[in-house]
Amino acid sequence: MKILFAASEAVPYAASGGLADVAGSLPKAISAKGHCCSVVIPLYQAIPDELRKDMMFLGNITVDVSWRKQYCGIYTAVRDGITYFFIDNEYYFKRDGLYGFYDDCERFVFFDRAVLEMLRHVGYFPDIISCNDWQTALIPVYYNVYYKYQQGYDRIRTAFTIHNIEYQGKYGKEVLNELMGIPSYNAGLLEYDGYINMLKGAVETADKLITVSPSYAWEILDPWYAHGLDRILVTKQYKLKGILNGIDTKLYDPENDKNIPANFTAENLSGKAECRKALLSELGLSDDEQPLIGIVTRFVNHKGIDLMRQAMEQIIRSGVKFAVLGSGEKIYEDFFIEMSRRYPDRISVTTGFVPELSHRIYAGSDMFLMPSLSEPCGLTQMIAMRYGTIPIVRETGGLRDSVRDNGGENGNGFTFKTYNADDMQDAIERARRDFADKTEWTSLIRRAMSCDYSWQASAETYIETFEEMIQEQ
């Protein structure tokens, strides 16, 4: 089976979030099971020179962006057994950053059309094109409108993975003709609530819709979670499936991680105590027996920061400390900074993203807080458990699918159901009480570290899904 993963980012070349981890790790896991996987992303300016030196130029083509003809260079490289393709156009991709530009719609219209045009040029026609998030949502649309019956393309099946339904690629109707070049009789594929909605186009035309956790697959049928798309998704339930993401267990490995001061395993936890002591010293927090809660997140509303704002002061006074790393909306950054000034020995805040520090927080914290309003999958709770740091989460999306409350049998964390600051505090208090029982807490750490959230199980489910798609032709 040949699978092409189309994404707007992929580690190690370009990354801004969890999508890059998925696009970099999942193809390797599927390839390890005997299938041929490749990845295509834009050739961003941000790709480091040391990675560019291994790229080979395959040629250039012309890509239609509505009435325009645009240059498209095609490069390739092989890394860890995976063939990567890179779509080059300096006008669109030679910029500081990956997204957030006034012409993002045009940039990814070009990219999506270029991916399909590239196939005939390189002579590579996959069985499956796996598209990811709104930036690649037009690939199944263009495939159905222009390519489905062309020679070489006629056996391709398209899957579309929704990593976060909040980001949909919504634009005014003028882009349909000015940028996309979609005929008016196909406008219904993309029109929704008075806008052109790129994600809606993928929902309409992809052969399979995938979400990044089983719970998120049914949550997005509810208006509370769907950001307006529930009406169309309800009609497409027959092709909707949830598959829990995995994590890179080589990158996040407490036994071999060079970013932490001491390595450890579930059998020998002495290194975790050293990591805790070193982290408290590094962050200038008081070194006592009270639990340390780690937070590594984006400071945005759906991450549950509002609950923290309501309850943080009371939680600190109850006898816990916080190690916070993240960036995002200024109102939330200012809140955390103000709290660190009020309680300098109880809360440390580092704004931005420092990968090495994130590893030390995962390894050195006792607990890890994720009170998310919504969480399509979440990776950090899985990473925290890999390092024996016990997650405290709200039961939503992938958090519900990966964390079992310690109040039941074989628990690996602490959970609460309603989006409520009092319920969050109750979960933290239960964790704090259990933390005082060192024998029970050590057992809990070992249960958490024994959980398998590698890509292996997820890869099997993806393979089964893709094989079913091929058989349905």
List the helices and strands and how they pair.
Layout: E1 2-6, H1 18-31, E2 36-42, H2 49-52, E3 56-65, E4 68-79, E5 82-88, H3 90-93, H4 104-122, E6 128-132, H5 138-147, E7 157-162, E8 170-171, H6 175-180, E9 191-192, E10 195-197, H7 198-205, E11 208-211, H8 214-219, H9 223-226, H10 230-234, E12 240-242, H11 270-283, E13 292-299, H12 305-317, E14 321-328, H13 330-342, E15 347-351, H14 355-364, E16 367-370, H15 380-386, E17 390-394, H16 397-402, E18 414-416, H17 421-435, H18 438-450, H19 455-471
Parallel strand pairs: 1-2, 1-6, 2-5, 6-7, 7-11, 11-12, 13-14, 13-16, 14-15, 16-17, 17-18
Antiparallel strand pairs: 3-4, 4-5, 8-10, 9-10
Helix pairs in contact: 1-19, 4-5, 5-7, 11-14, 12-13, 12-17
Main features:
alpha/beta, 19 helices, Rossmann fold, 6-stranded parallel β-sheet, 473 residues, 21% strand, 2 domains
Total number of strands: 18
What's the overall average pLDDT, rounded? 95
* Shape-level CATH architecture of the largest domain: 3-Layer(aba) Sandwich
| The number of domains | 2
- The DSSP helix count reads 19
**Poorly predicted parts:** none
Report strand order across the widest sheet. 3-4-5-2-1-6-7-11-12
Assign the CATH superfamily of the largest domain. Glycogen Phosphorylase B
User: How is the CATH topology of the largest domain named?
Assistant: Rossmann fold
The share of residues in extended strands comes to 15-25%
CATH class of the largest domain: Alpha Beta
Into which percent range does the helicity of residues fall? 25-40%
Largest sheet: 9 strands, mixed
**Basic shape:** globular
Terminal CA distance reads: 14 Å
Q: Assign the structural class, choosing from mainly alpha, mainly beta, alpha/beta, alpha+beta, or little secondary structure.
A: alpha/beta
* Rg (C-alpha, Å): 23 Å
